[in-house]
Design goal:
This protein is α+β, with helices and mostly antiparallel strands and about 220 residues long. It has 4 helices and 10 strands. It has helices at about 5-10, 150-185, 190-205, 215-220, and strands spanning about 20-30, 30-35, 40-50, 55-60, 75, 80, 85, 90-95, 100-105, 110-115.
């Protein structure tokens, strides 16, 4: 399952699934429980941090985590089923007129305690678990004198690696097509081929396979 840094998770759109997040429990609060016409409900708030930032986590209708989890590192992961990911998503949470993004965790997700540590972010959580998000910093400028942000170069590098992964997936898709057509004596349609390549690319992206790929000539043409 692809591990998402907290800083990147905060860029996800509301209702977008977050495959997995790892962080140190900075704050953990007693759960709130109650009932409505829809049945029993419960919420528990905590704050987790990693080297990139911090985020408030809301556990909905789950067994509460022990309060002694404070200071421990946990891994929160989606469930991966036939219909895709479920259990961990970004939601918007309003507090005193301010809207922050939170990690919304439901019973289908898994929460594992892991070894290791994640440095705490400097922001402080308020008593009710509300998190003040860090202010965005202006991108650093590179040293070539043209005022182009280093972040643009990073994006180009990432996109080139992703493009190279897609090319590998197309080659793998061609291999699947040749084997399938030889076995069934039926030509694979373009729609089936595109679905095959897309499935390979999506899974490869989730597994961060592009991280080890070279940047490639696409980047060199733009230097």
């Amino acid at each position: 399952m692809r591990l998402i840094p907290i800083k990147d998770a905060l860029t996800f759109s509301p209702e977008e699934n977050v495959p997995s997040v790892r962080g140190k429990v900075k704050e953990i609060y007693k759960p709130s429980t109650g009932s409505s016409d829809k049945g029993e409900w419960s919420f528990q708030n905590l704050v987790i941090v990693d080297e990139s930032g911090q985020i408030k986590v809301k556990l909905k209708d789950r067994e509460p985590l022990p309060l002694d989890y404070k200071g421990r590192v946990i891994l929160i992961s989606c469930k991966e089923g036939d219909k895709g990911l479920s259990g961990v998503k970004i939601k918007e949470d309003e507090y005193r007129g301010k809207i922050d993004k939170v990690l919304w965790v439901t019973p289908s997700a898994t929460i594992d305690r892991v070894e290791g540590s994640a440095p705490a972010a400097p922001q402080q959580a308020q008593a009710n678990g509300h998190v003040e998000q860090p202010k965005s910093e202006a991108p650093k400028q590179n040293g070539n004198g043209n005022g182009q942000p280093d972040s643009v170069k990073h994006v180009r590098h990432s996109l080139n690696r992703m493009a190279n992964l897609y090319l590998h997936c197309m080659e793998a898709g061609n291999y699947v097509r040749s084997q399938w057509e030889a076995a069934h004596q039926v030509k694979m349609s373009e729609e089936q081929f595109q679905a095959c390549v897309s499935s390979l690319y999506i899974q490869g992206s989730r597994d961060n396979l592009y991280d080890g790929l070279p940047i490639g000539s696409f980047d060199k043409q733009r230097k």
